[in-house]
Amino acid sequence: MEIENIKTTITNNSNFSLSTLSKKEEGVFIYSSIKENTFICLGVNKINTDNDNEIEEFLTKYVHGLDKKLSNKKDKLIIVILKNVEDNYDEFYINQKDIDNGYIYFNNYKKGESTLKNANEYLKNIGIKTIEKAVKKTKTSKKKTIQSVEPNIADLANGWLKSYGLDYKLEQESLNSEIDKALNDYYSKNGGAGGNRPDAKLLLQDKALNFYPILIEYKGYKDKLVKLSADEQVENKTAKNEPNFTNINSYAVNGAIHYANALLHHTSYTDIIAIGMTGYKDESGKINNSIGVYYVSKSNFGVGQKVGEFDDLSFLGSSNFDSFVEKIKTLNLSQKEIESLKEKREKEIDTSLARLNNDIYRDEKGLGENDRVYLVAASIIATIGIPGKVSPLEKSELKSSTEKGNTDADIIMRKIKAFLEAKDIPVEKKNLIVRTLENTITAENINKIKDGETQLKRVFCKIVDDLGIYYKIGLTTDFTGKLFNEMYSWLGFSQDKLNDVVLTPSYVSSLLVKLARVNKDSYVWDFATGSAGLLVAAMNEMLYDARNTIDSPEELLQKELKIKAEQLLGIELLSSVYMLAILNMILMGDGSSNILNKDSLSDFDGKYGFGETDKHFPATAFVLNPPYSADGNGMNFVHKALNMMDKGYAAIIIQNSAGSGKAKEYNKDILKKHTLIASIKMPVDIFIGKASVQTNIYVFKVGEKHHKDEMVKFIDFSNDGYSRSNRKKASNNLKDTGNAKEKYEEVVKLVRFGKSQLKLFSEQEYYENRIDPNNGADWNQSAPIDTKPTLIDFKETLSDYLAWKISTFIKQKGKEPSDSLNKRICDIEWGEFKLGELFEIKPTKYYKLSNEEILSNNGIVPLISNSSTDNGVMGFSNLQPNNKGNSITCSDTTLGAETMYYQEKDFIGYSHIQHLVPKFERFNKAIASVIISACRVATSKKYNYGNKFNREAMNKTVINLPIKNGEIDFEFMENFIPQIEKEIMKDLPF
């Protein structure tokens, strides 16, 4: 169908008269161009039906069909379906903002509710967004609606701004090109592409000449100021760490903070004021308003801190603004708030990285694993910028031109070269980086132009959109650690290489650095650098020490430069991983000048790789997580590195078989020149999801032969206080469930100062003993165990035996026939009942915690799991029960009712456990026993792994129960079951 232009211009707050619109065919207004790239379709009487087939026919023809015909990606489609239109309903109102964001409007009249529901369902299925809007009131309309006072709020606030003499800009007006572009590039409040327009905006300067963008959003309802989460943070993210567009679109403060994040993401501004203002009319017609003011910055991760609630906007006036700025400078997040925000940000990073990889893998054909890594590296380097030297590359600068020297590849590589030049990176290294990235960036396939853009531009924009907010508002090891872990997984290592490329968790890296006694004057090297996580941890420790011990600003600056340029050295053999190391160090502070791409065992002579290449690196600290497939599980790296050092300390994490015989010869040779100080047994799941190996940390003193009487500290750190999981959809796979941070601090003190520091660790977990320097296989000792049994041991053994004997006896007795009881069953009249008619079947409520966090040795509340034994009880907890007892539970992951049990007491539920709550009052253990028995018979051999006994199946299951006069015979069940119990128990052999 072709687009029919009409004279009516649709603008914000306009009324639209049906009579002014021309008809294309009976009952249907077709397409009217309301602004560039936006089209409206008005459907009138054609959808005046509740017949599903007619609804589908209309929507397919006029809605879905038009959607397919809008070829330009910028085109937006708005559908307004009017049902049961009468003469007096001649006008309606559409909000301009929502039109721009591509929503479909339904104006719901006094009839046709089911039609609206059916139409909404259909549009949802074909992926089109919908929204309901009340019709504009006319004189004949009797329905009372709450009218938005947003125009009044806007007039009031804008009047204040004008009275203060401030140069403010309204929704459609330009503030400056940088801010305008950022608002346009950021995803909209409804999740679409761009189109963010604050109701008012201005740029103010304080006495220090710093600029602060002010972004204001208005709403016209009483309860639409701000939506907060349970922890009192502005709730702009869902539980899945995705944008909460409902809150962003509906609440004034949430919308303003959304705009502020657009500026953090796409501009050089790092301190932004987000203001939300809303109001309502009271019964007297007076306008009441509320104002929420939030400070959004790099320091609060873009989430925003509440400055306060104000009666007006006078704090923006020239006489008050400096005082206001001083106030926001005093805002400090507590450590708890920082940790909470960091945790949320980590979850967001996980989501963004996974989405980025999935999108590129799914949508961008022809890109190999290394290509993806190099594209991310190139995009970040090109867009990070250097203040005053190199401006960040903007997405708009890529024009997908074929002009020589101005292709997308040319522009990106030009920016990368400028960045590397400004960083004073040595020529040899700069050339290596450029060559490596250039091979991917300039490849012919990704520079072909299709639909007006190159694949290179498309991927570049995707990377910036998904990751830019994290590295532009302040880089942390949280971001880089997760970034490089994710990119490691992209590299597609072969199975035999997987254990060789396992990254060290950041908290373990920090532990190794502290055990190696790194300080501001250390010279640290790593012979298997990977993505440089250990060197980043070392650099952070060195900088921290410098900032806490050097008072002179000039001296501190020089020391920081020296640390980054001269005091770190890393060696990585794999070129793809080497690029990650370079990028990591660049992102975390320029310490990239001595990352070498070579074989540390055969090609490294101990000298600087760049700059003073004839000078030996004076290493005083060695940290390492070696490839475990190397000789001696990687002890060959340790052997070489320690023998190239004159003094200092070393801390390595390695497969523990290296200390129990696998590296015997290396170990004996190492101890001829160096001392083993400590051996720390780490949790077996430390690398969960990547590798399952038992590791130890070995700590050495360099340059001093190990004496046979030297006492070595053996620490069992198997229980480090963290619980780990490897669930893809888990909100947080690492949780501190047992004083983890304090335990890691105590380990460092124990290694340094000995047994006097024992607090959290038990005597059994800390043990000192000698090793034989000529053995080499006795490095993994543990405290001797007292093998004499105690009274508790005797009781446990006897309890286990008695439980088995009783269980076996009862099961055997249960199979023996009983003539008297059998006769009673034969006389029973049976009736059929659906389980869903007898019970409300719903999922049990459960805690979103790990089992370790729920269970307790002295717990009293049962935790019901999917087990087919022990009445489904996994263990006991001290947490509050969240499901009522005197009911039945059953797993929905099994092949029938074998996991169906009666629960007498209140309990804690579990994932995939269904809760059967009786709809009748008379219920107890006896009645439950009959029902469970009937269910097990009814479901026996009926279900399989492809057809499980889920909630739907439970509801439909038909069981036979005793009846009397057509009703369930509860009295019989209550008498019969105790008789069976009595018969089984009477012959117990005790």
Automatic annotation (TrEMBL):
Alphabetized UniProt keyword annotations: DNA-binding, Methyltransferase, Restriction system, S-adenosyl-L-methionine, Transferase
UniProt EC number: 2.1.1.72
Name of this protein: site-specific DNA-methyltransferase (adenine-specific)
Gene3D superfamilies, per database record: DNA methylase specificity domains (3.90.220.20), Vaccinia Virus protein VP39 (3.40.50.150)
Catalytic activity: a 2'-deoxyadenosine in DNA + S-adenosyl-L-methionine = an N(6)-methyl-2'-deoxyadenosine in DNA + S-adenosyl-L-homocysteine + H(+)
SUPFAM superfamilies named among the record's database cross-references: DNA methylase specificity domain (SSF116734), S-adenosyl-L-methionine-dependent methyltransferases (SSF53335)
GO biological process, one term: DNA restriction-modification system
Entry superkingdom: Bacteria
Any one GO molecular function term: site-specific DNA-methyltransferase (adenine-specific) activity
Enzyme class: transferase
InterPro entries (alphabetical): DNA_Adenine_Mtase, DNA_methylase_A-5, Restrct_endonuc_typeI_TRD_sf, SAM-dependent_MTases_sf
Family listed: Belongs to the N(4)/N(6)-methyltransferase family.
